Amino acid sequence: MYKPVVIYYSYSNTTKSLAEDIAIITDGDIRELIPEKPYSFTYNGATKEVRNEIERGYCPKLLSGNEPVKNYEYIFIGTPNWFKSFAPPILSFLRSADLKGKTIIPFCTHGGGGFGQIEINISKECPNSKLLPGFAATSDFDDKQVQDWINSIGVTT
Question: pTM, whole model, 2 decimals?
Answer without folding.
Answer: 0.92
